[in-house]
């Protein structure tokens, strides 16, 4: 018997504003047919997604959100080394971010950079680099990475530090706005592995859509899917039926559709729920990316 019956992939956005074309949701079920986009009369807002996750999920849904659920911790023994108020674990980090951004509308996260101490840890506006953006003994100029992101690199992906808020490839803004959402879920939906995997019911995990693309189309890795023909080729590689459309598709929708099919294919793989590097301390602080090994 399958643990999950529905598989929801969410391509997330950290951009300013209420509604975002960059937010896309796709849902697959156990039938093996194509995943489908969840659409609204207007573009999705972050509050819309929060409401869906808290109140309207189908039963037994494995939810994947494309963001970082925490910041690096293991490399320095703290999220913000050198700051005496650095949170001790991920849930305290989520609460801190939401508190600092309480005056930001639409679950935005500008308040983080208004904090004199925390701004020192991020690369932000105009490529300004805080003096604590790097670990004290870092050889790389890319910033700090979580253990899960190091595992992603070993698999052939190119993650970007969650402390980087600059550039097209940055994920920091998405991660910070996502932490506000995770805090406001208030335990209504377990977040693995910060929360243990429940024996039944729905659960949310961090995903990296590049892992789905790498699994489906290894030769296409690193390029965005923007055509239904290529998307359907990738879906077929994951055992999914094709989407009944042709021509161009935006990359956010394509990523969500492909990753929903990937979650359906891999959600029951016990190995992905127990990666070798993941222990309880890491789970409570940095979390993990589902599918990283």
Please give a structural write-up:
- This is DUF429 domain-containing protein.
- The structure is a single chain.
- The chain has 293 residues and is an alpha/beta fold.
- It folds into two domains: 6-69 and 186-273, Nucleotidyltransferase, domain 5 (2-Layer Sandwich), CATH 3.30.420; 90-183, no CATH class.
- 28% of the residues lie in helices and 11% in strands.
- It contains eight helices and eight strands, in the order βββαβαββααββαααα.
- The chain has a six-stranded mixed β-sheet with strand order 3-2-1-4-8-7. It has a two-stranded antiparallel ribbon with strand order 5-6.
- The protein is globular, with a radius of gyration of 18 Å.
- The mean pLDDT is 94.
Helix content class: 25-40%
What is the molecular shape? Answer: globular
H and E order? EEEHEHEEHHEEHHHH
Examine the secondary-structure arrangement and name the CATH architecture of the largest domain. Answer: 2-Layer Sandwich
Strand content: 5-15%
Protein name: DUF429 domain-containing protein
């Amino acid at each position: 018997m399958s643990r999950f019956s529905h598989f929801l992939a969410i391509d997330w956005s950290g951009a300013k504003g209420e509604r975002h074309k960059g937010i896309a949701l796709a849902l697959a079920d156990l039938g093996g047919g194509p995943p489908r986009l969840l659409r609204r009369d207007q573009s999705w807002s972050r509050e819309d997604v929060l409401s869906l996750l808290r109140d309207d999920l189908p039963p037994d849904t494995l939810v994947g959100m494309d963001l970082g659920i925490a910041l690096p911790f293991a490399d320095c023994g703290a999220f913000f080394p050198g700051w005496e108020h650095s949170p001790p674990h991920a849930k305290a980090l989520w609460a801190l971010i939401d508190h600092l951004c309480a005056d930001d509308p639409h679950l935005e996260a500008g308040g983080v950079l208004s904090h004199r101490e925390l701004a020192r840890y991020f690369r932000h506006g105009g490529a300004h680099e805080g003096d604590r953006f790097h670990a004290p003994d870092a050889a790389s100029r890319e910033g700090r990475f979580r253990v899960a992101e190091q595992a992603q690199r070993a698999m052939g992906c190119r993650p970007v530090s969650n402390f980087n808020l600059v550039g097209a490839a940055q994920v920091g803004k998405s991660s910070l706005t996502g932490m506000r959402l995770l805090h406001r879920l208030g335990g209504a939906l377990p977040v693995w592995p910060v929360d243990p995997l429940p024996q039944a019911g729905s659960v949310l995990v961090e995903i990296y859509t590049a892992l789905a693309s790498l699994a489906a189309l290894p030769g296409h890795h690193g390029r965005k899917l923007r055509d239904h023909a290529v998307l359907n080729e990738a879906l077929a590689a994951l055992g999914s039926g094709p989407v009944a459309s042709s021509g161009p598709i935006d990359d956010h929708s394509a990523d969500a559709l492909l990753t929903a099919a990937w979650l359906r294919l891999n959600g029951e793989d016990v190995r992905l729920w127990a990666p070798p590097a993941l222990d309880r301390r890491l789970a409570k602080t940095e979390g993990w990316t589902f599918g990283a090994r």
